[in-house]
C-alpha cells in the first residue's frame, strides 16, 4: 500500500473542485478535506461520502475563501482531524467570474469582488494553511489559474475583471515561490472545461481536465515552484 496523502480542495461544491474530490477519493490512500461555503446545500459533494466509487476518506469542511474568520476556523478543524499529521497538497480551486466582463462596461463591484475571491482568497488560505503544509510528507500548493491570465496566449478583449484577477493570482504565486520554493507553489490551467463557469460550449469534460490536473499536481517537484502549467503538463506562457 502506498503512503496515504492528505489534500485540501477549495470550492469543492461543484465543477472542477467536486470532480477533483471525486477522483482523489477513488484511491483508498487519499484523505480529502473538501471545503465549500455552504456544506448543507452541497448535495453532490455530501453524496460522495456514500458513493461506491469512494474508497478514500472524505471530510467536508465549511470555508468561504473571502472570509478570514471562516478560513481560520477551517484550519483549526482540519488541524484537529489531522492531529499532527500535515497537509500534503493544497489546491486553491474556488473562483468566480462575472458576467458581461468587458473593459468598456467594467463594473467596479465586479472587479473588486472577483479580486477578493480569486486573489485575496488564495492569499489568505495559503498564509493560514502554511503551518499544516510544512508538516506534510509532500509540500505542494496548486493554484488554479487560467489561460485568460496569459498575455502570451492572447485571448483578446473579454473577461477583463476575471483576467486581471487570475493575473494577480499568478503574481501572488510567483511571490510565494520566491519566498517559499520548498512549498512548490505553482499555477495550473485546467483548460476550457464544461462547468457552470466554463459553459456548455467548453471543449473538455470535467473528468478529462481533472485527471490531467491530478497527474500534474502529484508529479511537480520544487523545480516547478512559480511555474504556470496546463492540465496536460505543458508550460503556459506568462
Ligand atoms: P464553477 O463556477 O463551476 O465552480 C466554482 C466553485 O468555486 C464553486 O464550488 C463555488 O462554490 C466556489 N466558490 C466561489 N466563491 C467561493 C468562495 N468565496 N468561497 C468558497 N468557494 C467559492 O467553476 P469551475 O469549477 O469551472 O472553476 C474552478 C476553478 O477553475 C476556478 O478557479 C476557475 O477560475 C478555474 N478555471 C475554470 C475554467 C473553466 O473552463 N471552467 C477555465 C480556467 C480556469 P458555491 O457552489 O458555493 O458557489
From TrEMBL:
It holds the Pfam family adh_short. GO terms for molecular function: oxidoreductase activity. Keywords: NADP. GO terms for cellular component: cytoplasm. Belongs to the short-chain dehydrogenases/reductases (SDR) family. This is C-factor. It comes from Suillus luteus UH-Slu-Lm8-n1.
Amino acid at each position: 500500500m502506498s503512503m496515504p496523502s492528505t489534500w485540501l480542495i477549495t470550492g469543492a461544491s461543484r465543477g472542477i473542485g467536486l470532480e477533483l474530490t471525486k477522483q482523489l477519493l477513488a484511491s483508498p490512500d487519499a484523505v480529502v478535506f473538501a471545503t465549500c461555503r455552504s456544506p448543507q446545500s452541497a448535495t453532490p459533494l455530501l453524496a460522495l461520502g456514500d458513493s461506491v466509487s469512494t474508497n478514500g476518506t472524505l471530510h467536508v469542511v465549511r470555508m468561504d475563501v473571502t472570509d478570514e474568520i471562516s478560513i481560520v476556523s477551517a484550519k483549526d478543524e482540519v488541524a484537529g482531524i489531522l492531529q499532527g499529521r500535515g497537509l500534503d497538497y493544497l489546491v486553491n480551486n474556488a473562483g468566480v467570474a462575472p458576467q458581461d466582463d468587458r473593459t468598456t462596461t467594467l463594473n467596479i463591484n465586479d472587479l473588486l469582488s472577483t479580486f477578493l475571491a480569486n486573489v485575496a482568497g488564495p492569499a489568505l488560505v495559503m498564509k493560514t494553511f502554511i503551518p499544516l503544509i510544512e508538516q506534510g510528507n509532500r509540500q505542494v500548493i496548486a493554484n488554479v489559474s487560467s489561460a485568460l491570465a496569459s498575455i502570451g496566449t492572447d485571448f483578446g478583449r473579454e473577461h477583463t475583471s476575471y483576467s486581471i484577477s487570475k493575473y494577480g493570482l499568478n503574481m501572488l504565486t510567483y511571490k510565494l515561490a520566491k519566498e517559499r520554493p520548498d512549498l512548490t507553489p505553482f499555477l495550473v490551467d485546467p483548460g476550457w472545461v464544461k462547468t457552470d463557469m466554463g459553459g456548455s460550449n467548453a471543449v473538455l469534460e470535467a473528468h478529462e481536465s481533472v485527471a490531467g490536473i491530478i497527474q500534474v499536481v502529484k508529479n511537480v517537484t520544487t523545480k516547478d515552484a512559480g511555474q504556470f502549467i496546463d492540465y496536460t503538463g505543458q508550460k503556459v506562457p506568462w
